[in-house]
Amino acid sequence: MFDRVAGRYDLLNSLMSAGLHHRWRERAADIAAPAPGDSVLDVCCGTGDFAFELAGRVAPNGHVVGCDFSEPMLDLARDKAAARGAGAVRFEWADALNLPYDADRFDLATVGFGVRNFADLDRGLRELNRVLRPGGKLVVLEFTKPRRPPFSTFYSLWFDRFAPVLGRLSDDPEAYAYLTESLNTFPAPRGLAEKMDAAGLRQIRYTVLAGGIVTIHSGIAG
pTM to 2 decimals? Predict the structure, then answer.
């Protein structure tokens, strides 16, 4: 499915976030607070926007590896990197549940709008913790389901009614249906924090944005 929607992925993000996804990535990067020279892994990097935001912050001597399991997404990310001259970013294929990196390798790991796509969330979080050096940071940016009006009302109208209409008008309705289903079944912010704790992360905090539509979690590798 992600291979099929790769060419429309950036547009889909803009539609689903009302154009705010770039601002949310900037806020997540602020919380991640990478230092110049840091080594960063951006998992489920998609077309590369979060990786580029992070690369600008680890310059001049740091580097960012963006990984994804969709080659068409990675092709688009590489095209963007070439157009920007972003030499500090490398994009490569990887399975988030079996990352091909040594333990204790990275100073920072991030996932932007990707953990809800893990086939096994607990295993994916353990893998992220494994590749971080002791004291390294994990930052997760993800949509969540607001619980209180007016944002819960907006969420219901946007994702339960507007997204299916977009799906019926598109040539890939499965993608829009999946988006709504994945959001409805994803853990609430406290639940994700508990899973991060169970995966071995410590000092877990989360920041709720947009009235509960988006949450940024962070944790420190033990």
Answer: 0.88
